[in-house]
Amino acid sequence: MSAPADVLAIAAHPDDCEFGAAGTIARWVREGKSVVYVLCTSGEKGTNDPDLTPPALAAIREEEQRAACAVLGVREAVFLRLPDQGLEDTDAFRRLLVRQIRRFRPRIVLTSDPYRRYIWHRDHRIVGQVVLDAVFPYARDRLAYPELLAEGYAPHKVRELYFWGAEEINCRVDVTATFEIKIAALRCHKSQLREFSRGDPVAWLRERCREMAAGESYGLAEGFHRVEAPP
């Protein structure tokens, strides 16, 4: 069994955590929290380069994610290597995530918001929904996936969920002191930044974080929809 982690960040693709929550992750690591990533796909379809094959891009993106984790101080990155643009809300996928939740036994689970409307990568939507269901009630309930008990994965109760990319933000985290670490981690994802469609990604993110901090006493924030899981 793996050592417990305080935070389990579950994302569809490499770079999702960096765009959505790396300032918060860096802050939590500074505060002494142990953070583990679970990457559901390797992002092997995330390019318009005709010379890149999916296996080659998957290898590049996994290496970029490991480099970003090193910058942030993330303890470990687990790659499930499910198909990019092919995630589905299935029992098999839910079981995989329940296994990781029970393996690392986090207090906090961090993932993409499943309820963002209209334009939102389908993998992000599916991951958020399956994570939510995996946390409650499946990871908690002893008789859910009894075969996991035989593998040594006992039930676990997550206490909090944070969803990035949310439209209904009810939690802001001051990332003024860790924004540059967020950017340094994001710069590790070179294969994605060179295809970024919104101009300068650093300027875009800085403006987003400034907007998130509007009305607060600090300058930059990341916003989430935070939910307390039932006991």
Can you describe this structure?
This protein is of the alpha/beta class. It has a single domain (7-228), classed as Rossmann fold, CATH 3.40.50.10320. The protein is built from 8 helices and 7 strands; from the N terminus they run βαβαβαβααββαααβ. It has helices at residues 16-30, 54-72, 91-104, 122-138, 146-150, 179-186, 190-193, 201-212; strands at 7-11, 35-41, 76-82, 108-112, 160-164, 171-174, 221-228. Strands 3-2-1-4-5-7-6 form a 7-stranded mixed sheet, with helices on both faces. α1 links the parallel β1 and β2. α1 (16-30) crosses α6 (179-186). It is globular, with a radius of gyration of 17 Å. The model has no long low-confidence stretch (mean pLDDT 96).
Topology-level CATH name: Rossmann fold
Counting H and I runs of at least 4 residues, what is the number of helices?
8
Mean pLDDT: 96
Unreliable residue runs: none
CATH architecture: 3-Layer(aba) Sandwich
Strand content: 15-25%
* SSE order, one letter for each helix or strand: EHEHEHEHHEEHHHE
Order of strands across the main sheet: 3-2-1-4-5-7-6
The CATH C-level class name = Alpha Beta
Number of extended strands = 7
Structural class category: alpha/beta
Count of individual domains = 1
Radius of gyration: 17 Å
Mind summarizing the main beta sheet?
Answer: 7 strands, mixed
How does the overall form come out from the CA principal axes?
globular
C-alpha end-to-end distance:
24 Å
**Helix share bin:** 40-55%
The CATH superfamily appears as LmbE-like
